[in-house]
Amino acid sequence: MENKNVVDVNYHRTGQSTNTNDLGMREMQARVYGHRNSQYLLVKAPPASGKSRALMFVALDKLANQGVNKVVVAVPERSIGKSFQNTELAKFGFYEDWQIDSQYDLTLPGGNDSKVQKFVDFINSPTGKILICTHATLRFAYDKIDDDHKFDNVMLAIDEFHHVSSDDSSVLGSALKNITHNSTAHILAMTGSYFRGDSAPILSPEDEQQFDKVNYTYYEQLDGYKYLKSFGIDYKFYQGAYLSALDQALDVTKKTIIHIPSVNSSESTKDKLNEVDAIFDAIGEVVDQNQTTGIYSIKSKANGRLLKVADLVTEEGRDRIQDYLREQVNNADDLDILIALGMAKEGFDWPWAEQALTIGYRRSLTEIVQIIGRVTRDSSNKTHAQFTNMIEQPDAKDGEVQYAVNSILKAITASLLMEQVLAPEIRLKARKHKKDNSSSNGGDIFVRGLKDPSTKHVQSIIDNDMPDLKAAILQDDAVKNGIAANVDPETMNKVLIPKVIMQRYPNLNNEEVEEVRQYAVADTVLRHAVVDTTTDSKGNTNEFLRMADKFINVNDLDINLIDSINPFQRAYDVLSRNIDSDVLRVIQRSIDAKKFNFDQAELVYLYNESKRFVAENGRKPDKNSKDELEVKMAYALAQLQDLKARRAQNGGR
Questions:
Q1: E strands in 416-493
Q2: Which of 87, 270, 426, 493 is 20 to 30 Å from the Cα of 621, by its Cα?
Q3: What angle do CA 330, 53, 319 make, to 5 degrees?
C-alpha cells in the first residue's frame, strides 16, 4: 500500500485561534459574540474551536440584555451534554458565569418520559432559565407542547446542527421550522460540518436566508494552533481481508483511534469481537487487563513498549472504559490506542490522539469530518495529525460493481472536499485593470472574464456558502460518476455543476446561476493548482500555476482557461494511481450502464443491432461515436454486462 498522502497541509502555529481577549474569548468566540444581537444565527466552525463556550457567551447576553427569558440547548447525545455544564467565565473577563440548575440538565441519567415532562415543565415555568437536553428529548417534548408561542422569547440553541433536515420526514427539522415561523424564538445553530451524508438540505433556501452566518474555517483553526503544524489524509486500498493488511497502515508509535467497519459492510468479517482480537495481535502481545478500568496492557511487537489499549467495541465492560476515558484520561500517558465501532466520533474528546485509522468507506462526509476532528485538537504531544482510510479494492471479476463505484468514489470525493476545507481561503475577483496582481498564497486571485455578483444573494453564496455548495456538488451522483469517468471539462463545468447549483438555490435566475458556477469552478480548479515560482534575469519574481496539463502565469488567469479544465482531475488521478486498469474498466462500465434507462425490449433490439454492427465493422460500438444509434448500442452493451455481473454475484438469479 502506498504511503503518500492524498492531502498534506502545513500550518504556521500562530497561536491566534487559542489566544483569548479581555472577555476571555478565543478568536472564533469573539466573532460569534459580535453577532449576539441576531435573532437567527448559524455558526459553522470545526471541532475544538470552542463552539460550546461561544454559545454560553451569546446566551447569557440574550438573557441579560435582549429580553430572552429562557435558553434551551439541544445536543445529539447525552455524552455531549458535559460540554455545557457549569463553567467559570467571570474570572477570565466575562461579566457572568454559566450556571445550570441540575434539575434542568436532562443529559444526566434518568428515564426518557420524565425528561420530556421536565422539558414541558421548564417551558411553562416562570423561573427556569437554562435547560440542556438531547435532540430526541426536544423532538418528543415539542409534540407535547400545543402552542408554538410557548417558545416566544426563548433562545433555542441546537448543537451539531447537521442532524437537522428540511425534509418533511424530519421531526426535528419540522419542529424547528414551526418554531421559527410561528414564534419570536431566537435560534442559534452550531455545526462543524454543515453538510449531511444523505445530501438533504438542512434548511430550505428561504429559511436559510433569514440566518446571519459566522464561518470559522478549519484552516483558521489549525493555522492558529500552538503545537500542530501539519495534517495529512491518506487512502490505502487493499485486497483480501483488511486484517491481513492492517500492520501496513497502523503506526503504534502514534496515539491512535481505530474505527473498524460496520458489520453490515463488505469489509467486515461479520465477527466484530474476533476483529478486535486480531487487532490486538497486530499490535502485539496482551499482558493483562485492568479489572477496575477495563484497559488492556499490550506489549508492542514493533518496539517492545507497553501500550494502554481501550476496547469500545465489546459491550461487556464498556461502561468501565467510558468512565475511565471521561474521568481518568488527563494526559498523553493515560491511553495509547482506542478501538471503536460506532463510538468515539462526534463530540468525543481525546486531544492527544494523533492518528485516526478508519477501516471501510464511510457513506457520510459528515462522519469523515467528525472523525478527522478527533485528531485535529491542539496538544503538546503532537506536531502532525493523520487520517488514514483503508478501503477494500474490489476484484474486477467479483461482480460487485455498484459497491465498488460507491466505495471508491465516496472516499475520493471526501478527500477532495477535505483538501479544500483544510486549505487557506482564496478570494476570487474580476480582473479589470493590468495593475490587479494576484497573490496565489491564500490571498486575492484576479481572473479575467469573471463575472461580478449581480445580486446580494449571489454575493452571500460566494462569501458564506462556497464550502457547502462544493460539498453538495461532490455528493451529487452525476458528478461522482463524472469524476470516475473523467468526463470532459465542458460537461462537468457547464452541465453537471450548474444542475447542482439550480437544485440547491432554486430561486436563482440563469444569470445568477452562471455567476455562482464561475466562482465554484474557479475556486475548485485554483485550489488544486500547483504553484511554481521563478525569478527572471532582473530579479523579478513570477508565479505560475500548473493546472492539470496547463502552465500559466498567475496574472494571466482567464475564466475561459479555467473552464477548459476538469476541476476534479485530481480525483481521477487518485483513482488511476491506486486502482488497476481492470477495476477502472469495471467502474467505467457500471457508470456507462446508467447513462440510458433502457427497457427490456430496447435492450433486445440494441443487442441484436450491435451483433450486426460488429459483423459489419469488425469492432464493438463506440460510445464516443457521432452516430446516435451506435452510442446507444455501446451503452446497451455496458448495461447488459452490468446485469450479467450482478446476476453472477447473486447466484444466477
A1: 427-430, 444-447
A2: 493
A3: 40
